[in-house]
Amino acid sequence: MSPTRLSVVIASTRPTRIGHHIAQWVLDAVPADVEVTVHDLRELALPFLDEPGQPADGNYAHEHTRRWSAAMQATDALVLVMPEYNRGYNAALKNAIDFLYAEWEGLPVGCVGYGWHGASFAKSALRQTLERVKMTVVEGPGLEFEKTLTQAGEVSASPADDAALAAMFRELLAGARPPQDRPTS
């Protein structure tokens, strides 16, 4: 049996971002039998949605969209490492979600947020979008500035945060998309 394929997306694209530090904390906790791929939205560099057709049609005109689609088709579960900006989630993440549609259906996703209040506002807003594109949302931890996270990105997760991360992985893997159910283009 092939291992579960997990994708971890670093959502922040800011030059001074700390998302890669939080992603490393997440990656350090991934169960050993899981195959992991990291997708960095800064490196992916998707332009603002420029596909002429509707994402639901799945007919992608641009190579950048086809690459993003193939990456998400090849995953069985997803973790979004996402910041909170002004009580919302960032535009690059919204844009990346909006580029696709069928690829999201039934895909379990956990959101690891970071910011003030553990990114609770951003995670709440993002949940609505993820549910609209038919993803299965799994609760993930939120790291909070001045409590479990420094402004420089140093993670000092509490035992409760570590337990929440482990619980998120258990739920993601239990609901992971079987290989035969991966969408194809």
TrEMBL record:
GO CC annotation: cytosol
Pfam families: FMN_red
Family matches, as InterPro entries: Flavoprotein-like_sf, FMN_Rdtase-like_dom, NAD(P)H-dep_reductase
GO molecular function: FMN binding; oxidoreductase activity
Domain NADPH-dependent FMN reductase-like residue range list: 5-141
Protein name listed in UniProt: NAD(P)H-dependent FMN reductase
